[in-house]
Fold these 2 entries.
Entry 1:
Amino acid sequence: MIQPFEIIRSLKSNRYEAIYVSDSEKAPINERFRFNVFVELDPWDKLLKFGCDCKGFNFNKGRLCKHISSLGSNPGLLQQLKAWGEINEVPTL
C-alpha cells in the first residue's frame, strides 16, 4: 500500500504533507480541486502548525478543516496519521 502523505523529519518536529481531492461528485476526478494540506507536530504529538488550501480553512480563520481532521467517511490527515501509526492520539486545538 502506498503511503498517502509525505514526512519531513527534523530534530524538533515532524511535518506531514498530503494532497486531498474535493469530494464533489458532480465533476470527474481529473477536474476536481486539489488541496495541499500540512500539519507539523512536535515529538509528543502536539500540533505546532497546520494549513490547508481549501475555502473552509480560509473562511474559518485557521480552524481545523475537514481535510486536516474529520471523523466522517473521508478521514482527515490527522486520522490518516493515526491509522498509519505515526501518532498515538489525534491532537486538538
Entry 2:
Amino acid sequence: MKRTITITGLVLVVSYLGLCYPSFHVETYRDQFVKAGELRSPLSSIAVHVTRPNYLTLFGKTYRGVQGVQPFYLEVPALDSVLFVTGEDDQTFHLVNLKTRKHLGVGGLKTSFGGHIPYDDFVESASANQVVVATRYQDAKKSFFLNFRSGKVERIVYEKYENQKTNRSVYIDGKRVN
C-alpha cells in the first residue's frame, strides 16, 4: 500500500513538473544572425530518454522542432539567405533572407531531409524561383526541388549509383513519373 502511494505521488509530481513548467532554452550555438540550441523541460531533466527538441531564433522569431545539428541551418549565399527545416511528420522548409528578413516556406510534407544538416544535407543550387537541396548517401543522392514562390516541392529526384551507372527516379506529388 505504501509503495503504491509513493509511486502515485512520484507520477503526480513528474506530471505536474512536465505540464506546469514551460520548456526553457539552452543555447548551444550562436552567430551574428542565429541563436540555437535545445528546449528542455523539468521532465526531460528527469527522464533522460525524452527527446529534447531543437530551436532556432532568427531576427527575434523562435522556431521550434528544428532539424539537424548546430548550426541547424544551411547557407544559401546566392540568395543572401539561410535555409532550415522544422517538424518531423509535418515538415516545413524555411528560407529567410538575411538582408530583407523576408521569410518564405514550403510545408506540409514528410521528407527525409533536414536531420543531417549540415553534414549530409546540403544546398545543391539556388535561383530566385527555386532552391534545390539534397541528401548525400553512400551510394545515392536524393534531391528536393523547392519552389518558395508557390510554397511547394516541385519534384523529388532519387539517384542510385550501381555498377557504374545511375538509376534515376523522379517523383511529383508523391507519385513516381518515370
